[in-house]
């Protein structure tokens, strides 16, 4: 995974919705199919939380395709709050709607 400020489209959405953009955006979080279902994704999110908290970042944020119900449910179950949908065009001008989630840092045990 990456922990950075996120895409410019996400930064604009956060600003327009009264949220201060911070470098606490989790990007490119992926787990290989053959090890899925063993909690590795939650461990990676917990590590991102620890790194962000250590840097003084108040929130972890992420986005995913709005039509991916399984992934949206996964983030909700991981303690993230749904903030809304971003319907700004993708990096090549293509239509793309993403759902934005956030969670305060320091909320993961361990």
The secondary-structure class comes to alpha+beta
Strand residue content? 15-25%
Mean pLDDT: 91
| DSSP strand count | 5
Q: In order across it, which strands form the biggest sheet?
A: 3-5-4
Number of helices: 3
Helix content: 25-40%
**Helix and strand element order:** EHEHEHEE
Largest sheet descriptor: 3 strands, antiparallel
How far is the N terminus from the C terminus? Answer: 19 Å
**What is the 3D form?**
globular
- Report the radius of gyration as a whole number of Å: 14 Å
Low-confidence blocks of residues: none
Quick recap:
With 110 residues, the protein is of the alpha+beta class.
Can you give a write-up of this model?
The structure is a single chain. The chain has 110 residues and is α+β, with helices and mostly antiparallel strands. The chain has three helices and five strands. The strands form two sheets. Strands 3-5-4 form a three-stranded antiparallel sheet. Strands 1-2 form a two-stranded antiparallel sheet. It is globular and about 35 Å long. It starts with a strand and ends in a 6-residue tail after the last strand. The mean pLDDT is 91.
Topology:
Blueprint: E1 2-4, H1 8-16, E2 25-27, H2 40-54, E3 59-65, H3 69-77, E4 81-86, E5 98-104
Antiparallel strand pairs: 1-2, 3-5, 4-5
Name its key features.
110 residues; 30% helix; globular; two-stranded antiparallel sheet; alpha+beta; single chain; 3-stranded antiparallel sheet
